[in-house]
Write a structure and sequence with these properties.
Helix content is 23%, strand content 27%. It is built from seven helices and 14 strands. It has helices spanning 2-25, 43-53, 181-184, 194-197, 228-236, 248-253, 257-260; strands at 75-79, 85-88, 91-94, 96-99, 108-114, 126-127, 130-134, 140-145, 149-151, 160-167, 174-178, 187-191, 210-216, 219-225. The strands form four sheets. A five-stranded antiparallel sheet has the order 1-14-5-10-9, covered by helices on one side. A four-stranded antiparallel sheet has the order 4-11-7-8, with no helix packed on it. It starts with a helix and ends with a helix. Mean pLDDT is 78; it is low at 1-5, 22-41, 193-207 and 247-264.
């Protein structure tokens, strides 16, 4: 009878021993956001090398295919090893080519967002866009490097480096987005915000200071007609370090005397 009472206890003890043995032999699980960086190589240099090793498909804007209509709202595009490469005046770049919507009232804005390429801020880079507007004969009528400005939203979809361009020429028919040599060798100011930068990797990041994110040859960009969410991001984005003023005392000294309590 005593053996019957002891049997459940023996089974429980045996189960605990097996569980402890399994835990001891298994690897301890560490959440992804607490693991050290696994990137040991230079991702930017590797991407640049991939670009130089690629075989260009096009050497002029007339060679591009313009079968894609400019999205009616920002849409995600991935530029990388599997996307085409153009060689424009000796500059290699991945690119996107769009047909502009017909009969759209001008002027209108095209929104662009570039996402940080890389999990860790210290090794991340951005694809910095150059826009070229073409007429019906594929001749450039406007072109510019788009400055990118940082905006931290409430989610990944509203966070990134934002920019825009305006279509205001009645002859505009097509839009090409690539990255010029100046853009590829430049950088974008990035105001440090460790808590908002990445929900995946909040560790191994400097808690103060600002950064300049280098530009690279590939990455994820969003392109499309401006909508309200992107307009807010573009208009409120941080484009550089705020200018330093004269301080609160200087401001107070310019207030009317009755505000500061001074005698008239």
């Amino acid at each position: 009878m005593r053996l019957l009472f002891k049997l459940p206890a023996l089974l429980v003890a045996l189960g605990l021993c097996l569980a402890l043995g399994a835990c001891h032999s298994a690897k301890v699980f560490v959440p992804p956001n607490l693991r050290p960086p696994t990137d040991t190589g230079d991702a930017l240099k590797l991407a640049q090398q991939h670009l130089q090793d690629a075989t260009p498909c096009c050497t002029s804007f007339a060679d591009f295919s313009y079968g894609t209509l400019l999205p009616w709202r920002p849409k995600k595009f991935q530029l990388g090893p599997n996307s085409p490469v153009a060689n424009l005046n000796g500059v290699r770049s991945h690119f996107l080519a769009f047909k502009l919507p017909p009969d759209l009232k001008m002027p209108y804005r095209v929104a662009i967002k570039s996402e940080l390429n890389g999990r860790w801020l210290h090794s991340a880079y951005l694809f910095a866009p150059t826009t070229v507007v073409l007429d019906e004969a594929f001749q450039p009528i406007d072109g510019k490097d788009i400055p990118l400005c940082e905006y931290m939203g409430w989610s990944k979809s509203t966070t990134g480096a934002f920019g825009s361009t305006t279509i205001d020429n009645p002859k505009a028919r097509y839009l090409v987005i690539y990255s010029s040599s100046d853009q590829q060798s430049g950088n974008t100011y990035w105001e440090q915000s460790p808590a908002a930068f990445s929900a995946e990797a909040p560790v191994n990041m400097t808690s103060t200071g600002s950064f300049k994110i280098p530009h690279g040859p590939d990455g994820t960009i969003w392109v499309g007609l401006m909508n309200d969410g992107y307009k807010t991001a573009v208009d409120q984005a941080v484009c550089g370090e705020a200018p330093k003023g004269d301080g609160l005392l200087k401001t107070l000294s310019t207030l009317p005397s009755h505000w500061t309590g001074s005698a008239p």
